Amino acid sequence: PHVQSYRGGVYHFVLGDEPAAGMAALAKAHDASLFMCLLAMVKIQLHLYTGQDDIIVGSPVAGRNHPDLENQVGFYVNTLALRDKIHDNDNFTAVLERVKQTTIEAYDHQLYPFDRLVDELNLPRDVSRAPLFDVMVVFQNDVFSERSTKTFTISELDIELETSRFDLTFIFRETGKNIRVGINYNSDLFTRETVERIGTHFENLIKSVLAGKDRPISDLD
Question: What is the pLDDT of residue 145?
Fold first, then answer.
């Protein structure tokens, strides 16, 4: 649409023990975080879908890197724009190393306000889309555990979102041996069936990388 409507939905699925363990092992082998591995996977998937080699993805940071802010009430979150070049002849290791370096450098400047970045870049504004990127990647460590008392039980539910700030948002949650994934999507652009296929493709891509991480990404399934 000519003007962003923010209508959306969300599709939830779980990466099983094997792909989750494989991702964790890859991260450890390359001295990277699990977030960096999953971010590299998303960027490869976007490259394979679009043929574009200049991939910018957004990601939130907590904004509480000073000890005095740890117990403060308030919204300190800032947004990073993570930009990488992805090429067909790259293998996964090469992409991961590039994403790792980009992420580390972005964390070094994580306090730079996103709004100021947008203003100073002075890019043409388009009300049908976000200013710097169309895809967000969120990673969360799961700290929730079900609790019970004599009178009630507290448990967690997946909320069926009906809004979307971006075209796609990949939300990863590390939960023990598994990784829970939610894909929040712009329903003006994608049907739920399409997003379910995106989820299946993501799982297949992980399995393909684990079977041959040194292959060029253009050969991955």
Answer: 66
